Amino acid sequence: MLGVNVVVWRALALMMIVSCGIAEADDWTHWRGPMQTGAHPTAKPPTNWSEDQHVRWKTPLPGVGHGTPVVWRDRIYLVTAIPVGPELDPVYSQAEGAHDNAPVTHRQQFVVMAFDRTNGAELWRKVVREALPLEQGHFTGSLASASPTTDGERIYASFGSHGLYCLSDTGEVLWEHDLGTMQSKHGHGEGSSPLLVGDLLIINWDHEGKSFIVAFDKLSGKTRWRKERQEVTSWSSPIAVEHDGKWQVIVSGSDRVRSYAAATGDVLWECGGLSHNIVASPVHANGIVVVGSSYEKRAMMAIQLKGAAGDLTDGPNIIWTRDRATPYVPSPLLYDSTIYFLRHYQGVLTRVRVDSGEELPGPLRLGPIGDVYASPVGADGRVYITDLDGTTVVISHEDVPRLIAVNKLDDSFAASAIPVDNELILRGRRYLYCLSEQKVGGN
User: Fold this and answer.
1) How many Cβ atoms from other residues are within 10 Å of residue 116's Cβ?
2) 363-373 pLDDT, tens per residue?
């Protein structure tokens, strides 16, 4: 049955990618992969590794960035923030309710980088802006927490208050926008990633000021539409869903989940019920969108797209809900018909059926896994979960999972892993890793 599911997923991935016009099935061009679910339909990454085993290459990284890289063929693109100049007297966030924030101690260079996937060599780096940050963010975050995205010819990177940039594959800035100053809740920072939908680039801008969502022409940078949002700070990234032959942009928010017509920005439907701290991104399969949140309350729901219009709150389009052990920081993984998610950001894994919300045997305590900020990923019948301390647990994708491996690297990981071809790309605080059980040049 698993083999049949893989074939179906490959076909679905190809259809979605051709429709979006952004990538090939073997690439990982969005922070949640080719289907925006955290799963890869064809990759066969390794299951075992250490600092001395199956590291194809390991490249030092400058600065700090938690944004998951993206992969296009033999290129890896990522963003980082590099402190420059003399150390300053610490400047703390003045945001209301600020706590657990890191001090601002340096000016920062906001940088987009490209690496050769075959050997880890740095191909280019482009400083798109240098500035003194207004907010340093939460001590577990970074000033480069939004993942870039690419269509293979251009790379799109959002640094929030420090600008939105479109670069060529050689690092030339083709266009840019200053969208203003984002005032994040408690000064905890920024992190929503950009989304490509056909010829549009979508940016969600939820903060403590005037929130909005905006669509740019990906080639020219011209604004195609912009809609105000009655929302406060969220860190969730939008996803694109094709339904009844038309593309929707779906965004979780502290007030409501909303779906926008990709072509016009018109609101198609909306639904209340999540918490006030929105970090996890939605997932979608077979006409069902699943959203979740945690913190001051736990809330997760599945929304049926068939017939969805207007306000869906508490209506028949809500096919299941749950109010315990819901996701907070890591986004859910949707693998075949199963949703995997962590309780809050701890090493306790829950699995439910996407169509019914039925909970599968568990929850599963993931042994040595501690705090998890990276989102789980799936490939080749396996699920990979990486924590801040460098441990990755690999389990089988089955009704009753088996522990396959526990792997440890000497780095800290907040970015999500990337399964692609026979490799696993891991972006740590200090290094970029390429892991593979094949020898260089092997097949």
Assistant:
1) 14
2) 999 989 999 99
Q: Are the C-beta atoms of residues 40 and 417 closer than 8 Å to each other?
A: no
For residue 50, what are the domain limits? Answer: 1-61+353-443
Distance CA 316, CA 314 (A): 7
Whole-number Å distance between alpha carbons of 413 and 416: 8
Helices in 21-92 by DSSP H: which ranges?
A: none
Is 153:175 a contact under the CB 8 Å cutoff? no
Residue 428 lies inside a defined structural domain of this protein: yes
Q: How far apart are CA 17 and CA 8, in angstroms?
A: 14
Using a cut of 0.90, tell me whether the model's pTM lies above it: yes
What is the total count of domains within the chain?
1
Strand ordering across the sheet containing 164-168? 149-150, 154-158, 164-168, 173-177
The answer to whether the beta carbons of residues 66 and 416 sit under 8 Å apart is no
Radius of gyration of the chain (CA): 20
Cα angle 109, 179, 157; round to 5: 50
